[in-house]
Design goal:
The complex is a heterodimer of chains A (418) and B (1042). Chain A has eight helices and 23 strands. By secondary structure, chain A is of the alpha+beta class. In chain A, the strands form five sheets. Chain A has a nine-stranded mixed β-sheet, with no helix packed on it. A five-stranded antiparallel β-sheet of chain A has the order 2-1-5-4-3. In chain A, strands 14-15-20-17 form a four-stranded antiparallel β-sheet, with no helix packed on it. In chain B, a hairpin with a 2-residue loop joins strand 14 and strand 15. Residues 1-27, 255-276 and 642-809 of chain B have low confidence and may be disordered. Classes of the chains: A alpha+beta (418), B alpha+beta (1042). Chains A and B meet through strand 2, strand 4, helix 2, helix 4 and strand 7 of A and helix 1, helix 3, helix 5, helix 7 and helix 9 of B. Chain A: One of its GO terms (cellular component) is Golgi apparatus.
Chain lengths: 418, 1042
């Protein structure tokens, strides 16, 4: 299936190659470079590129292109999903997935890639299994290894590989048994010029960090499960239980994992936590324009809005911005044409405002397009959908675990049109 | 300790040197000094040094540097105890083995050893590497390793075997038939770990062998939820294809309704009504698939969700389709690349079924941060979803898009508006007006696109829109984009009859500015002038002539040419000839309106979710989805347990009852023949073989017919025709498998034998035996198995025959005689038989290949059957892999190799079980120590000339009359010794050639008939073998026994 993998950085340097079948010359990437050049922005590179004898399926992540070479028919999502899994594994192993960390750990990267695919078909992608086969690098371990000459590579087949629950390894032991769940909700919304909601929905995920000994069997229930419109689960969740009782019952993987993701659709009324008053206009003459943005709280359920950031993609003709912010700092990048206003905490008493003039390229006609505003925000201790975890029960083990649930609301793709 | 740390410091220094060098020369091979350092490190005694060296080498490989020159130094470490070092060596080996084939062979024995390691991870990784080394010479070794691994106890090793199948297949496609056997075996595997991988192998090697799936279909459906996610994707795609060939269309119902509405009135034919009103009942297996895949829509793996969605799209009744919508929309939250693929599929779906996605229309609203290709796809879907009810919302949305900074996207939006306008007549006017407004846009792409779209819209209904053309004429002065100006002029010309007053005025204006216009505009001015001249020459004659004059002296040759052409065409003069008569018809021909339709219109010819669909062109290896069959194929093929089979067995019984007697008698005859044949020679066996092939073709022919035909076949025993028969048999084998697969509960090996046996003998006979006994399934299980074991042993030869016939150099004749190795009484229940397969041995060139059948006739399972390490007589023996467990009444066949060293001395060894040891010995007949070779007659005489004197032994014998024919001589000789027949030009001289297995010395045999005597001459360096052979030939040829 997957023939070869090339990692290419943003500057177009090919810094790693791995082949699972016979070697394919790296010149195949010329087709990719051609497409890359044509696309201008890295995001615009088409994920599937055709060459006379091969197909290049690529993803762009963390400023790295993962370019895989395919020779025959294969579901493209299969490859795309796998490449993302590779990137996630790197992140899991090295803390971040970047060119530097990959180059620094090239041997482990190679060992991982070797284990993840056999003849181009995924063999082990579950992080638990991989970690038993190849231990992630830590400073302590690499020191011990250099001194004792012992290795990072496991000698026996990970137990998970054979069991019916491949995500969990046997014999897990902790002195402090704890299970934490983060309910993270993101608001995807489009607001129009006048502030009315064109479209809004909530995407939620429940991230878990479970450090429990033995083979615990957990079940998580909600106060209001009916809210959830569409869900997808980690493979550990028993789907039948959910269907019949709306209870999430599972034997958790060890450590961090995403338990489920859910969707609360546009049909339900979605609370929009802030409002934005904006006026961006360009004058017919004089190559200048005016900008005035005010942000205020709307439905925040009594919580504070934090980490508020407004990003504006300005038209190409805008040269500079001379603005005045009542709160936070702003920055205009004349190269990328992005105006970034970092507000911070939203104070309902004194609404933050950004006001001033924009100067345009002289002689250029007045831009017709209107820039749109992208909002980023965070509200702690609130799930904007109102979803609440009722209780978490544990079966199968005797000890009493420490349990915790945290709620966060963030802005997802939150856009205000002007 | 100190020394160690000092060492590591020095490595770091070297490391920095390396990076410096890297920067200096990219992509070249590594510099000499550095590579010699690495070589030194690899050859040192310290593990840590070696490991460090390997790590650096892997670093080089990752960068794409050529490190192949280190191959000899690296390959030495392949047997290292250090597992990390070993793995890195594996990485290296797989990368370079193809380039350094000879050296790579050095490592093979290590892997062969590791294949027997007690640790399953080591076994599996040895197989992985062995099968990844793309060296054609080791194909037989790989084949053997795969076969063994396929029966490994560890599912992980079996999974690896499934992967190895594909590797071997890509290395040597000739192995296909053998690999299919392994696939068939692995498909029966119940482990979820294996399922995905073996289906992958199936798809790659033999996707057309859908018959292999039947028996495993329900199992695969039921396992699906527990299979790992990647396997799920592959299995779902395969099952989609399978279901399309096996079930009838669930959509027929809907189609029927439509048909009913239309035809019910006229159609009074009874039959037809009955057929139509027959309700559609979904095959329970079809339902099973849909039911078991549904929960997977909740998978976190986007590929799985997409796979299930396409399965529903292609297989589910239309009214059940809606459940996939939500899941697909959910995928839109995923990464950009995922969105791209999912949106493409939704675009295809939304053309056919708007209703599915309409409630989720807002999820396709475009964000300014989306990538361009995502935006375009969303736009496509929104356009597909547009209908009378939602068009106003969509158009409002489009208005924002038109203002986008992304001009390519804005242009695409304008096209989308155009499509909406043509599809929904209510909004055509609104759209047109909107588009007209856009004409004053400053951006060239937007304006050009608008004009083009307006042009298209007007072409569809020009008469109603003269006011728009007028409006465009008014705007004309303000429009600067040449393309747009040109388009407007074209419109004026094309529809000048609708705007009779304005068009000449526009032409007048253009005549003034002609010289300042862009070229494309000029061309259109000429065009407009010509058209007006034809329709309204009174007003425009002078103007046209003026413009044509201007054009005549234009700087651009294109315009000059066009002007000349137009002038000749429209202005009548004596030179212009016939063409000008048709000027009006040429210029004013009605032009067909362009069709505005989705680019995704025909995409559904590709299976959704595939690469071909994404590319909209067939990718290599794409497997077409077949149409639903009109009539459902037999459903019972998927039944696994015979006991539950209600109708089929009865039918079979009644069918066989008629011919019961005959078949029984036949088989008895044959068995008798077998027993006789085992005592001396091969005439019976070959005749039985012939009669078998005969009986296949004419199952119901009577005995006399049969015997006559088999005799006629005897008279022309050409090796050619024999080969044909064999291939025929193979074909039959494939065809008949599904019928016989009822007996899947048998252990695979016996199963395989029985299968072949069934085909080789009257397969219907065995069928009776089996289907009758299944009625007392439980009681008869044991005896049935026993029977099979017995038959399998008896017919072992036959099975070999079929296998072997695929290889190029097959022995002329293989006797089916088995010799007893261990009697069940002495073996405490374990009995063993061996026979010579007469094949080149796969374990070693100097070994004789043997097949050993072990059966357990005790009432307890025997464990750990193996051959002891000690060989008492010193022959080199390749032992078979220990058999972990042999159930009571079961038997297995294993192969082994013995190097007899060209002597008939018996090989003595110990056959051990967990508890006991039995001394056994194998005494080879001299004829088994040979292998056939082919050579020309000339070579034969030449070689014979070299082996005269001492090396020649000959004897004169008196032939029995029945042995005089050429066939019988041939047959007798080849049954005694494993030698090949040399074509002879002289009538009464027969020549045969072979070589000894161990030393490879030539053995040449010639038989000269001089009625009634015959002279046998044997020429060989191995005089002992020669004289022994001679003695055996003498007995064989003088013996009158058939």
């Amino acid at each position: 299936m997957i023939h070869s993998l090339f990692l290419i950085n943003n500057a177009g340097d090919l810094f790693l190659e791995k082949h699972w079948k016979s070697v394919i010359s790296r010149s195949i990437c010329d087709y990719f470079f051609e497409a890359r050049e044509k696309a201008v922005e890295p995001d615009n590179v088409p994920p599937v590129i055709r060459s006379p004898h091969h197909y290049l399926i690529n993803i762009y992540r963390e400023k790295i292109f993962f370019v895989s070479v395919i020779q025959t028919e294969v579901p493209p999502l299969f490859v795309i999903e796998f490449l993302h899994r590779v990137a996630e594994t790197f992140q899991d192993y090295f803390g971040e997935c970047s060119e530097t960390t990959i180059k620094d750990n090239v041997v482990i990267v190679y060992e991982l890639l070797e284990e993840m695919l056999d003849n181009g078909f995924p063999l082990a992608t579950e992080s638990n299994i991989l970690k038993e086969l190849i231990r992630p690098p830590t400073i302590l371990r690499s020191m011990v290894n250099t001194i004792t000459g012992s290795s990072n590579v496991g000698e026996t087949l990970p137990t998970g590989q054979l069991s019916s629950i491949p995500w969990r390894r046997a014999g897990v032991k902790y002195t402090n048994n704890e299970a934490y769940f983060d309910v993270v909700e993101e608001i995807d919304a489009i607001l129009d010029k006048s502030g009315t909601t064109v479209f809004a929905e909530i995407q939620g995920v429940i991230d878990a960090c479970v450090k429990l000994s033995g083979m615990p069997d957990l079940s998580l229930s909600f106060m209001n499960p009916r809210l959830l419109d569409d869900v997808s689960f980690h493979p550990c969740v028993r789907y039948k239980r959910w269907e019949s009782e709306r209870v999430i019952s599972f034997i958790p993987p060890d450590g961090n994992f995403q338990l489920m993701s859910y969707h609360i659709s546009a049909q339900n009324l979605v609370a929009i936590p802030i409002y934005v008053k904006q006026n961006i206009s360009f004058f017919e003459t004089g190559s200048s324009g005016r900008l005035d943005i005010t942000v205020g709280p709307k439905q925040t359920m009594g919580k504070t809005v934090e980490c508020l950031v407004v990003t504006v993609h300005m038209p190409k003709v805008v040269l500079s911005a001379n603005l005045n912010a009542t709160q936070g700092t702003y920055n205009y990048d004349p190269v990328t044409k992005i105006l970034l206003w970092d507000i911070g905490k939203l104070n309902p008493q004194k609404l933050p405002n950004l006001k001033g003039s924009l100067s345009l390229q002289s002689g250029a006609p007045k831009p017709e397009e209107s820039p749109s505003l992208n909002i980023d925000l965070k509200i702690q201790q609130l799930a904007i959908s109102g979803l609440k975890v009722n209780r978490l029960d544990m079966y199968g083990e005797k000890y009493k675990p420490f349990k915790g649930v945290k709620y966060v609301t963030k802005a997802g793709k939150f856009q205000v049109r002007t | 300790m100190l020394g160690m740390s000092a060492n590591s410091v020095s490595y770091n220094e070297q490391g920095s040197v390396e990076s410096g060098v890297d920067a200096a020369q990219e992509n070249s091979s590594i510099p000499g000094s550095f590579s010699s350092d690495l070589k030194e490190m690899l050859e040192s005694n310290k593990e840590s040094l070696k490991l460090e060296a390997m790590k650096r080498i892997v670093g080089l490989i990752a960068k794409g540097k050529n490190a192949s020159e280190l191959f000899p130094a690296v390959v030495k470490n392949v047997a290292s105890k250090n597992i990390e070092l070993k793995k890195l060596v594996y990485v290296y080996l797989v990368r370079y083995a193809e380039e350094q084939q000879d050296l790579a062979l050095l490592s093979i024995s290590t892997f062969q050893r590791a294949l027997k390691d007690p640790n399953q991870l080591i076994r599996a990784s040895a197989l992985r590497v062995l099968s990844s080394i793309r060296v054609p010479i080791i194909v037989p070794i790989m084949m053997l390793a795969i076969k063994e691994a396929a029966t490994d106890l560890s599912p992980y090793v079996r999974k690896t075997a499934a992967h190895a199948i594909q590797k071997l297949y890509s290395l040597d496609p000739d192995q296909k038939e053998h690999l299919i056997e392994v696939i068939e075996k692995l498909l029966k595997d119940k482990s979820t770990l294996v399922a995905g991988s073996v289906v992958m192998a199936f798809e790659e090697v033999c996707p057309d062998r859908i018959d292999l799936i039947h028996k495993n279909y329900r199992k695969l459906c039921n396992l699906l939820v527990d299979v790992e996610e990647w396997g799920q994707v592959v299995i779902i795609h395969m099952l989609t294809r399978y279901a399309r060939t096996q079930f009838v269309s669930p959509w027929r119902e809907d189609a029927m309704f439509d048909e009913n509405n239309e035809k019910a009135f006229y159609d009074s034919e009874e039959e037809r009504k009955v057929e139509q009103t027959k309700p559609y009942i979904m095959d329970p297996d079809h339902r099973l698939l849909l039911r078991n895949t549904k929960p997977l829509l909740q998978s976190r793996n986007t590929a799985v969700v997409m796979a299930v969605s396409q399965l529903y799209w292609h297989l589910a009744p239309k009214h059940e389709l809606s459940i996939i919508t939500k899941s697909l929309v959910r995928l839109l939250r995923s990464h950009r690349e995922v969105q791209y693929v999912v949106l493409q599929n939704i675009a295809t779906m939304s053309i056919q079924r708007k209703g599915m996605f309409e409630p989720f229309m807002k999820s396709f609203y475009v964000r300014s941060t989306d990538a361009t290709h995502i935006k375009t796809l969303k736009l496509e879907i929104l356009t597909n979803l547009a209908n009378e009810a939602n068009i106003s919302t969509i158009l409002r949305e489009f208005q924002t898009y038109v203002k986008s900074q992304d001009k390519a996207f804005a242009a695409a939006t304008i096209q989308a508006i155009g499509r909406c306008a043509t599809n929904i007549s209510e909004v055509t006017d609104t759209c047109l007006n909107g588009l007209v407004l856009l004409l004053s846009n400053r951006d060239e792409t937007v304006v050009a696109e608008s004009v083009v779209v307006i042009k298209k819209l007007l072409q569809t209904q020009p008469s109603q829109h003269s006011d728009i053309i007028k409006h465009m004429a008014k705007l004309f002065d303000n429009i600067t984009v040449p393309m747009a100006r040109a388009s407007i002029l074209w419109l004026m010309g094309e529809y000048c009859e609708h705007v009779p007053k304005i068009a000449p005025d526009v032409l007048r204006k253009m005549a003034k500015t002609f010289t300042n216009e862009e070229d494309i505009v000029k061309l259109q001015i000429v065009n407009l002038a010509a058209k007006l001249y034809l329709t309204n020459s009174k007003q425009t004659k002078l103007l046209t002539q003026y413009i044509l004059n201007l054009g005549k002296y234009d700087q651009n040759y294109d315009i000059r040419d066009r002007t000349r052409f137009i002038r000749q065409l429209i202005v009548p003069n004596e030179k212009s000839g016939a063409l000008s008569k048709y000027a009006r018809r040429i210029l004013m021909a009605p032009k067909p309106a362009p069709v505005l339709q989705s680019a995704f219109k025909d995409r559904d010819r590709f299976q959704l979710g595939t690469l071909s669909h994404t590319l909209n062109s067939q990718a290599s290896g794409y497997l077409e989805l077949s149409d639903w069959p009109a009539v459902a194929p037999d459903q019972s093929v998927r039944n696994v347990e015979v006991v539950k089979e209600a109708g089929a067995p009865a039918l079979r019984k009644s069918k066989t009852a008629k011919s019961n007697e005959k078949f029984y008698s036949d088989s008895e005859e044959e068995e008798e023949e077998e027993e006789e044949g085992s005592s001396s020679e091969g005439s019976s066996s070959s005749s039985s073989e012939e009669s078998v092939s005969e009986s296949e073709s004419e199952e119901n022919s009577d005995d006399s017919n049969k015997s006559s035909s088999s005799q006629s076949e005897k008279s022309s025993s050409e090796s050619d025709s024999e080969k044909k028969k064999k291939t025929l048999k193979n074909k039959k084998l494939q065809q008949q498998k599904p019928d016989i697969l009822i007996i899947t509960y048998l252990p695979p090996q016996i199963m395989q034998k029985t299968l072949l046996l069934i085909i080789m003998t009257k397969y219907i006979l065995i069928h009776i035996v089996l289907s009758i006994s299944t009625q007392f399934f439980v009681n008869c299980m044991c005896s049935l198995l026993h029977l099979c074991v017995f038959l399998a042993c008896q017919f072992d030869v036959v099975s070999w025959h079929v296998h072997v016939s695929l290889q190029a150099s097959s022995p002329v004749f293989v006797p089916e005689t088995s010799h007893e190795l261990l009697h069940r009484m002495t073996g405490k229940g374990l009995s063993a038989q061996y026979r010579f397969t007469r094949q080149p041995c796969i374990y070693g060139n100097s070994m004789v290949s043997l097949q050993l059948t072990l059966s357990n006739s005790s009432d307890q399972a025997l464990e750990n059957i193996h051959i002891s390490e000690k060989s008492s007589t010193g022959q080199n023996i390749h032992r078979f892999n220990a058999i972990e467990r042999l159930e009571p009444q079961a038997s297995v066949t294993v192969s082994m190799g013995v190097d007899f060293n060209d002597s008939t001395q018996a090989a003595n060894f110990q056959l051990c079980t967990k508890e006991d040891e039995f001394s056994v010995s194998i005494q080879p007949a001299v004829g088994e120590l040979l292998l056939p070779i082919t050579m020309s007659e000339a070579d034969f005489t030449k070689e014979q000339g070299k082996l005269m004197g001492m090396n020649e032994s000959s004897a004169t014998i008196t032939m029995t009359p029945e042995n005089v024919s050429s066939q019988s001589v041939n047959r007798k000789v080849v049954s005694v010794a494993n030698i090949g027949v040399i074509p002879s030009s002289q009538e009464n001289i027969y020549r045969f050639a072979g070589k000894t297995v161990s030393s490879g010395s030539l053995v040449l045999v010639s038989v000269a008939l001089k009625d009634p005597d015959a002279v046998i001459t044997i020429n060989t360096e191995k005089t002992v073998i020669g004289s022994m052979l001679l003695r055996q030939f003498k007995t064989a040829l003088t013996n009158s026994c058939p």
